[in-house]
Design goal:
Layout: E1 9-13, H1 24-34, E2 38-43, H2 46-58, E3 62-67, H3 73-87, E4 92-95, H4 110-138, E5 141-146, H5 160-180, E6 185-192, H6 198-207, H7 212-222, H8 231-242, E7 253-256
Helix pairs in contact: 1-2, 1-8, 3-4, 4-5, 6-7
Bound molecules: nicotinamide-adenine-dinucleotide (NAD).
Nicotinamide-adenine-dinucleotide binds at residues 14, 16-18, 23-25, 43-45, 48, 68-71, 96-99, 146, 148, 192, 194-195, 197-199, 231.
Length: 267
C-alpha cells in the first residue's frame, strides 16, 4: 500500500469482471485497495464482485461486495445507502459498468438502442444525481467514469449505440463537473482504447465470429504500441483521478489507448 487513497471510501459500480481474469472494474478495486481505500463494490453478478473482494482482502484491504443492477434505480439507491450505512460517507464513485453491441442504425432495433443508453449513460446520470450532492455536503469527492475511444471516433466497425452513449457520457461528465466544481466534487472520465481484458474473449470474440486469438492479434496490430493495454493501465488512471493528486483536475479525460486515437488507423 502506498496510501494515496487512505481513509477514502470508494463505491465501485461494476466491481466484478465479465469473465475469469481481471477486467477494468476488478483492477480498479485491487489498486484502490492497495492505495488504502475502503471499498464497496456492486455488481449484477454477485459472485464476480465477491471474487474481487477476495483479491482485495488477500492484500489486506477491505471490500464489501453487493448485488446490484445499476440500470435499476432502486438497486443503485440500495448500493449508495449500504455504503453510507457501512462507512458514513462516499469519497469516490466509479461508474465502470458499460458495454457494446455491434451495428449501425439499420441493424440496431429501437429497444436495443435504448438499452445501450440505459447501460452506458442513464445509470451514470442516476448515480451522479444521487452521490454528487452527498459529496458536496461532505465537502468534496471524486467521481470517475469509464468511457471508450469509440466515444471519440469511428473505430472501423459500426458501434453506433455504444459510440453515441459513450460520447454522451463524456460530455455529461464535463457538464456535471462544472456544476459541482465549486463544491469540491471532481468528475472525470477514463477513456480506454483496445484493452486485453476478459471481455475480448468472453463477449467480443463471440459477437465477431468466435476466433478469440485472431481478434486479439488484430487488436494488438491496430494499437500503435503493437500491443493492447490491460485493465491495470486503465486502473492506474482511475487511481490518479480519484486521488488528491488530481485536486485541480475536473471535467477532464485521460485517454489510455497506446496512441490509437492519435492515428488515422481504421478497422
Ligand atoms: N475491455 C475493453 O477493451 C474496454 C475498452 C474501452 C472501454 N471499456 C469500458 O470499460 C468498462 C469496463 O469494461 P470491462 O470490459 O473491463 O468490464 P469489467 O471486466 O470491468 O466488468 C464489468 C462488470 O460490470 C458488471 N455488470 C454488467 N452489467 C451490470 C449491471 N447492469 N449492473 C451492475 N453490474 C453490471 C459485470 O458483471 C462485470 O462484472 C466499461 O464501461 C467498458 O465500456 C472497456
Amino acid at each position: 500500500m502506498t496510501d494515496r487513497l487512505k481513509y477514502k471510501v470508494a463505491l465501485v459500480l461494476g466491481a466484478g469482471s465479465v469473465g475469469e481474469g481481471v477486467g477494468n472494474g476488478r483492477a480498479i478495486c485491487v489498486l484502490f485497495g492497495r492505495e488504502g481505500a475502503q471499498l464497496v463494490g456492486a455488481d449484477v453478478n454477485l459472485a464476480a464482485a465477491e471474487e474481487t473482494a477476495r483479491l482485495v482482502k488477500a492484500e489486506g484491504a477491505t471490500m464489501a461486495a453487493l448485488a446490484a443492477d445499476v440500470t435499476q434505480e432502486a438497486d443503485l439507491r440500495r448500493a449508495v445507502d449500504e455504503t453510507l450505512a457501512r462507512h458514513g460517507r462516499i469519497d469516490i464513485l466509479v461508474n465502470n459498468v458499460g458495454g457494446s453491441i455491434p451495428g449501425g442504425p439499420e441493424e440496431i432495433e429501437p429497444d436495443a438502442w435504448r438499452a445501450q443508453f440505459e447501460f452506458n449513460l442513464h445509470y451514470v446520470y442516476q448515480s451522479i444525481r444521487m452521490v454528487a450532492p452527498l459529496m458536496a455536503n461532505q465537502g468534496g469527492g471524486a467521481i470517475v467514469n469509464l468511457s471508450s475511444i469509440a466515444g471519440l471516433r469511428h473505430l472501423g466497425n459500426d458501434l453506433a449505440a455504444y459510440a453515441a452513449s459513450k460520447a454522451g457520457l463524456q460530455h455529461f461528465s464535463r457538464v456535471a463537473a462544472v456544476r459541482y466544481a465549486p463544491k469540491g466534487v471532481r468528475i472525470n472520465t477514463v477513456i480506454p482504447g483496445l484493452m486485453n481484458t476478459p471481455l475480448v474473449a468472453q463477449r467480443l470474440a463471440k459477437s465477431q465470429g468466435g476466433d478469440a486469438a485472431a481478434l486479439i492479434a488484430k487488436r494488438n496490430a491496430r494499437t500503435p504500441t503493437g500491443k493492447m493495454g490491460d485493465a491495470w493501465d486503465v486502473a492506474w488512471a482511475a487511481v490518479y483521478l480519484a486521488s488528491d493528486e488530481a485536486k485541480f483536475v475536473t471535467g477532464a479525460e485521460i485517454v489510455v489507448d497506446g496512441g490509437l486515437s492519435a492515428t488515422t488507423r481504421g478497422g
